[in-house]
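As a warm-up, study this chain.
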Amino acid sequence: MATSRIMILFLLFIATVTGHNITDILKDFPEFSEFNNYLTQTKLADEINSQGTITVLVFNNTFASEYLANQPLSVVKVALSIHCLLDYFDRPKLQAIGGGSMTSTTLYQTTGNAVGETGFVNITDLVGGKVGFGSGGTGSRLDALYERSVKQIPYNISVLEISSPIVAPGILKTPPRSNANITSLLEKAGCKTFANLISDTGVLKVYLTAEPRGLTVFAPTDAAFRASGLPDFGNLTDTEFISLLLYHAIPGYVPKISLMTEKNPVRTLASNEIEKFGLTVRTNGDSVTLDSGIDNSHIESSVLDSVPISIFKIDHVLLPAEYFTKPPSPAPVPVPEASPPSPSAHSAPSAPSVPSAHRPIASSPAPVTTTSPTISPPAPPASPTSPASYPVSGPAPAPSDSPTADTGSSNSSGAYAGINVPVLLLALVTGIISSIVG
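Now compare it with the structure written out below.
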């Protein structure tokens, strides 16, 4: 008897911890497959699953095709978020309205983008025992009628079928925001250095090519590029530097709530068959940290969240383990029997020792050879066969003799915070774009 009670309590505990999964609930109802598919594409499913109490109003595939098929995903997400009520409603609760009406807040209201009362849903007990749902916006009609209860996990989640979609005023006329000027948004957010780097190197074109299929960008702040101890990018080849910038983006739309559910290292735009270039996401409450294996960077804020693009501002430049090594942990003090390592001839006296492992990816030009273990060694002298470099400080590199290298501009002042960006090989970026399109 005692064992049975323990087992029951254990199962109740598991049920409480695991919560609900709207995708799993709807997969058993093929008539809502289109609705479920849109929840997945817009990542709205992750937001629904993160809510402690929620009611989802679903409609069948016929209405989903008619209502949403020709809309951009940014509009689809808004339209469906209006069908997510931040309260628990089942048939008995609807019947208890008793000839009256009430208003419920939706997920759309929580975004801060709702105009007027469009972030609310009006629920009214109609003549003949029917219950109607309509937008809280002025002039809205109660055309969506309660049909049946699909699934309930009291008082966690309730899924109710309605006869037709709830149409909020002006939502379907909302223009898509996917054409947002990325560099302009980054500059306003305090990421001007990063904006200039991706623009002048041609990486912005790669971002824009990937955007229609989904894009998430992690943009370091200007202060991150001025941080002490930042490695010398002058020791990277053209391909390596481009990979560093591509490492700051994920090929897919991943808002913050979805990012927090990532359990495995995520692939970046720099990932390929040879090098992983992965990022590990770590969460602590509402705080999100990106771990490259070399350093950590915290997400400071969201710059843009509009399907299919998401942009975050982060506080450190992400350093891929493929090109950099982690600083050794300081030896415990005191350790009389341990002798200190012999200093390198190239080490700066005041800089901590961080050896660099500059391993080019398969298609990179000949790498610049360096033996310096310091975190900011001086850039090696340019040679006729050496690719352009990206020093954090110091004189600008000699111009390349290659006629194909003149695809950008060099800027060594202002927003670049001391980073010289030379022209890059057009074929390099064009090849990356071709691989994404293909």
